[in-house]
Amino acid sequence: MDASFTIVPYSEAYKDAFRLLNEEWIIKYFQIEEMDRLALHDPQGYILDKGGYIAVALLNGIPVGVCALIPCPYEGYDFELSKMGVSPTAQGKGIGKLLGLHIIEKAKQLGAKKIFLESNRKLAPALALYKKLGFIEMAKVASPYARSDIQMELSF
PROSITE patterns this protein is in (predicted)? Predict the structure, then answer.
């Protein structure tokens, strides 16, 4: 990755990018669900005000990737890694991995011991990335997402 790449914390300036980068992959493979609407249309209230965090990957100053840490309601888990999206124009450059590493480091800084994520088996590149980051498949817990058919966890 060249010097024109950086990861910055979310600000209101990136609200549209956060929504659009996520809607792009969700619409391509699935459909927008109620939980998506809550997070994507009110990241401040749904994620940040609850103690979460959102990272924005910039390439030449343009948002090309996003990822969130959302406080997790499931017992034993501190956060959910969620709403990771990388623009198709920027995929294959390692941005997803750098975002994942950044989010994991942020979770540790926030005192997390274990984080969780939900995905779908048809998203093979995403699952490969999560495995590279150290996530392992876990027994499924109840999910608010119809599209979720795999859940993974990472302990620190």
Answer: GNAT
Question: Which CATH number belongs to the domain containing residue 36 in this structure?
Answer: 3.40.630.30
* 139 is a domain residue: no
74: phi then psi, degrees, rounded to nearest 5: -80, 135
The structure's pTM equals 0.94
Q: What does the alpha-carbon distance between residue 64 and residue 96 come to, in Å, rounded to a whole number?
A: 10
Buried residues in 3-36 as b, exposed as e (16+ CB within 10 A): eebebeebeeebbebbbebbeebbeeebeeeebb
Number of residues that make up the chain: 156
User: What string of H, E and C letters represents the secondary structure of 119-136?
Assistant: ECCCCHHHHHHHHHCCCE
For 80, the token pair is 């959910």
Tell me the pLDDT tens digit for each residue of 134-156: 999 998 888 889 899 999 999 99
The domain of 90 spans: 5-112
Among 127, 125, 126, 120, residue whose Cα is nearest residue 149: 120
Give the residue ranges of DSSP H helices in 13-151.
Answer: 15-29, 34-41, 43-46, 95-109, 124-132
